[in-house]
Known about the structure:
InterPro entries: 4Fe4S_Fe-S-bd (IPR017896), 4Fe4S_Fe_S_CS (IPR017900), CobQ/CobB/MinD/ParA_Nub-bd_dom (IPR002586), P-loop_NTPase (IPR027417). GO terms for molecular function: iron-sulfur cluster binding; metal ion binding. Keywords: Iron, Iron-sulfur, Metal-binding. Residues 67-94, 96-125 form the 4Fe-4S ferredoxin-type domain. This protein has a nine-stranded mixed sheet, with helices on both faces. A two-stranded parallel sheet has the order 1-13. The longest helix has 17 residues, at 199-215. Helix content is 33%, strand content 31%. The protein has two domains: 9-37 and 166-285, Rossmann fold, CATH 3.40.50; 67-126, Alpha-Beta Plaits, CATH 3.30.70.20. It starts with a strand and ends with a strand. The chain is of the alpha/beta class. Helix 8 links the parallel strand 11 and strand 12. Helix 5 packs parallel to helix 6.
Amino acid sequence: MITAAEPLRIAVASGKGGTGKTTVAVSLALALGDRTPVELVDCDVEEPNAHLFLAPQITAHEPVEILVPEVDLGRCTFCGLCAAACRFGALAMVARKVLFHPELCHGCGLCALACPERAIREVPRTIGWIEEGDAQGIRFRRGVLNVGEPMATPIVRRLKERIDHERVTILDAPPGTGCPVIETLRGADFAVLVTEPTPFGLHDLRLAAEVTRILGIPTGVVISKDGIGTDTLERYCIEAGITVLLRIPMDRRIAAAYAHGIPLVAAFPEWNEAFRGLYDGILQAAPRAP
């Protein structure tokens, strides 16, 4: 629960990709930009794309590293305790060789603790970077995972460490319900789940809503491509007690603006008021301390 004076931290997520999650996150940030200090954080570090709509001026760039083991073969007795301790299979002992698979290492440091000969030290390995800047009055941050790297969570965690707590923060989450999504959602005051009225949309909304329920995050829904499909999605929201906060119609003009990298509220200024209404709905739904 947050106090009335604290700016909200809003996570915009979706069970599936392509629902319009980034459209909602960017439009919400732009609609609020002249009303309150706003920060947009693109946590989809495997495929960040919010910058395509905001064209930010980047002012800072910082590598993200994790600590990985380096074995001193002069001290190693090849006992295999380090490999046995690793829960992720990043270390293996073959004959009198230590094999290290860096893409499996989570940087937990347990192998170094397990080594009785103190033959393991931790060294940094770069897995990506974060950058920040400004765009149209909005503070902007994004993370980028290096090509071929499997672990996005450390970069998401580093992004969140840099959050400006004096601003309303909008977190553009990755699609799905995996570890990077959970890390993005953790600590959020409210989750906006963007979905579409299709069988796939409903299936993945159920999964995303279950994640926010387990994490104890108040949740609302934005229906994108409204007007297609059936009312099954609406019935689910009623049964689950999830409020539909905004509807974005299936409109070719909106799709065309998106394809040209134009935010919804820039292409159609009348939508600014709708997204301010979305924020007001979030304010009403988010629990706040007196």
